[in-house]
Design a protein that fits this description.
Number of domains: 2
Order of helices and strands: HEHEHEEHEHEEHHH
CATH superfamily of the largest domain: Vaccinia Virus protein VP39
Shape: elongated
CATH class of the largest domain: Alpha Beta
Number of strands: 7
CATH topology of the largest domain: Rossmann fold
Largest sheet: 7 strands, mixed
Distance between the termini: 40 Å
Length: 219
């Protein structure tokens, strides 16, 4: 089975897991791929909606993996027992929703649980929450699909300290093959915002804030 670049990069953080829980599994592509390729022994495919979960069950059955992948209807982490999964994937949703899932499911996450988080938006805000609430972003990966970039975070419980640039762009991604284009993309986005603000009145404070962000990104 061929995965998208985004999903493939997510699975690279899964290697060596025993039980992987995929939250918001949709069609179950990640758990099926991980089991098929020996990245984990067993998996739990969770989704809040019965439709995607039914599609995941079909995909799991068609792959002959119903005995090692359990499909569960679940709002966030609610269908998981504490420490049941040593690796939890929460991907393909907004950073604020990922944050809320972590808050509601805190009792499920053990001291050694590996969290693989991939926000579609609000990555900075998710990093801020993690750093302020006892989670360490160990490192990140970048995935690129055409003109879109995705941050994939490897997170565990622990102390965390992030620089301003790491909060904005991500931790440990400087050597990523896509890093240069990722920086250019962010520079262009912030520059367009600044140019738009300059056409408005009484926006000096906002302009200064975005100019500061631009300086951080360019360093």
């Amino acid at each position: 089975m061929k995965l998208s670049e985004r999903l493939l990069k997510i699975t690279e953080f899964v290697r060596g897991a025993t039980v992987v829980a995929d939250i918001g599994t949709d069609h179950g592509y990640v758990p099926v791929y991980c089991v098929q390729n020996g990245l984990c022994d067993r998996a739990i495919a969770c989704d809040i909606n019965e439709g995607p979960l039914a599609a995941a069950r079909d995909h799991i059955a068609d792959s002959g993996l119903s005995d090692v992948i359990d499909a569960r209807l679940s709002d966030g982490l609610e269908a998981l027992a504490p420490n049941e999964a040593d690796t939890i994937v929460i991907a393909g949703m907004g950073g604020f929703l990922i944050r809320d899932i972590l808050i509601r499911g805190t009792e499920v996450i053990g001291s050694d649980t590996r969290l693989i988080l991939q926000p579609m938006v609000a990555a900075k805000e998710l990093r801020e929450y993690l750093a302020d609430n006892g989670f360490e972003i160990v490192t990140e990966k970048l995935a690129r699909e055409e003109d879109k970039f995705y941050n994939i975070m490897y997170v565990q419980k622990g102390a965390s300290s992030l620089t301003e640039k790491e909060l904005l762009l991500g931790k440990g991604i400087e050597d990523d093959e896509n890093f240069g284009d990722y920086v250019t993309f962010n520079v262009n986005v912030v520059s367009k915002i600044i140019n738009g603000l300059k056409k408005s009145k009484d926006k000096d404070g906002e302009i200064a804030r975005y100019e500061h962000l631009l300086e951080i990104i360019k360093v």
